[in-house]
Amino acid sequence: MDNGFFKNIEKKTGVNMKDIFDLANSLQNANFKDEKTVRGVIRRVSQIANKPVSKEMEDQIVRSIINDGKQLDFNTIANMMNKK
User: Angle, nearest 10°, between helix axes 55-66 and 35-49?
Assistant: First the structure.
């Protein structure tokens, strides 16, 4: 993909693509059964998206991933963050 494509995404979303790529790279070998790792990822995604996550919501996402075996991906976290 060319650089212009990513610049357009950055402009529309306000999200820095370097941050997204750095996060994606850090997830490759992460242990998603480890609560500390999962919490760190949730906080990082929240920071990148500039969308605060309450302690209660963070706990719910962590339980969902660790206990229920949900996959950890941007859509899962975004969907949970958007639920009221």
Answer: 130
